[in-house]
């Protein structure tokens, strides 16, 4: 009897061991399946960049659109009168209550500050550049940054001389060398020229005609005149000048007091209803 009980107990233990082994084998076989699932997930994540490629294509399309928009020529709506230097509309119906902002002697010390103030106020302008400031890397970099901010660059000669005292060859060198420097830095040749002290000559006018450029003086400006080299005085005079009128061509310079006065000048002129002309809308009339 004991022998029979022993045999039954032994059989039960053997069956239990087999069942446990099968359960262990079944669990072990499932682990690779979990690993495979994880691997597939990783592969799927690595192959998902199809969406990134689409995004990249869209980004390229956006960039191309921006380039096309930048390359589109802005319609010319105004021109500079050769006698009065006022900004006049080409066609009737164009806004006449406008003013043109111009800054001479750039980029000396404050031109970049001035450019950023103008950009903040969404006020376009022309910077008339002297080539002598472009001999240093700093000057070149400043001019490039001003240009990249969207401002028109004009020619103000190489060394700021009185052109009436120079030979034709010397005047030609003053203008052409500065043109070349500006074009080398910005990729664009200047369209407008401002003679130092506003003294144009037959030689300069002939050279400009050959270059397809136009000379431009101004209707008023005070920041280089004794008695106005002060922020508060300059602010008031530029906004309340007796010469302020439709088409005003405003002369300012690369000066500290001009930089400091500029925000109030812009605000004051806009308060009076003036719109600042985008120089790119100016038609060149040599």
UniProtKB/TrEMBL annotation:
UniProt KW Repressor keyword: no
Q: Which GO terms describe its molecular function?
A: hydrolase activity, acting on carbon-nitrogen (but not peptide) bonds
- GO biological process: any one? carbohydrate metabolic process
Q: Does the keyword Ion transport apply?
A: no
* Principal EC category: hydrolase
Q: List keywords of the entry alphabetically.
A: Hydrolase, Signal
Q: What is its EC number?
A: 3.-.-.-
Which intervals carry biased composition (Acidic residues)?
A: 34-70
This protein's source sits in the domain of life called: Bacteria
Q: Where is the NodB homology domain?
A: 97-277
Q: Residue span of the signal peptide, if any?
A: 1-22
Which Pfam families does the protein's record reference?
Polysacc_deac_1
Biased-composition ranges for Basic and acidic residues? 23-33
Note down the stretches annotated as region Disordered.
23-70
In terms of PROSITE patterns, this protein maps to: NODB (PS51677), PROKAR_LIPOPROTEIN (PS51257)
Q: Which PANTHER family match?
A: GLYCOSYL TRANSFERASE-RELATED
State the name under which the record lists this protein. Polysaccharide deacetylase family protein
- Whose protein is this, by species? Nosocomiicoccus massiliensis
**Taxonomy-wise, where does this protein's organism fall, top ranks first?**
Bacteria, Bacillati, Bacillota, Bacilli, Bacillales
């Amino acid at each position: 009897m004991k022998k029979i009980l022993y045999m039954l107990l032994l059989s039960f233990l053997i069956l239990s061991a087999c069942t446990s082994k099968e359960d262990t084998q079944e669990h072990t076989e499932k682990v690779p399946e979990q690993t495979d699932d994880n691997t597939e997930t990783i592969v799927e994540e690595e192959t998902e960049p199809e969406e990134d490629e689409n995004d990249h294509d869209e980004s390229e399309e956006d960039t191309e659109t921006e380039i096309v928009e930048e390359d589109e020529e802005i319609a010319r709506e105004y021109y500079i009168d050769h006698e009065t230097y006022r900004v006049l509309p080409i066609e009737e119906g164009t806004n006449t209550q406008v003013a043109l902002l111009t800054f001479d002697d750039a980029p000396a010390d404050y031109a970049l500050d001035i450019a950023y103030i103008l950009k903040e106020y969404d006020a376009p302008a022309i910077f008339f550049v002297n080539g002598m400031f472009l001999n240093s890397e700093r000057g070149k970099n400043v001019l490039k940054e001003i240009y990249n901010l969207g401002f028109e660059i004009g020619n103000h000669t190489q060394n700021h001389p009185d052109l009436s005292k120079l030979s034709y060859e010397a005047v030609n060198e003053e203008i052409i060398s500065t043109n070349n420097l500006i074009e080398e830095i910005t990729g664009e040749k200047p369209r407008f020229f401002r003679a130092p002290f506003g003294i144009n000559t037959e030689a300069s006018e002939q050279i400009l005609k050959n270059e397809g450029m136009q000379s431009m003086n101004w209707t008023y400006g005070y920041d280089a005149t004794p008695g106005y080299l002060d922020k508060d005085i300059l602010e008031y005079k530029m906004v309340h000048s007796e010469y302020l009128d439709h088409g005003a061509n405003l002369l300012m310079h690369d000066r500290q007091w001009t930089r400091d006065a500029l925000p109030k000048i812009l605000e004051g002129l806009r308060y009076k209803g003036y719109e600042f002309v985008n120089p790119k809308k100016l038609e060149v009339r040599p």
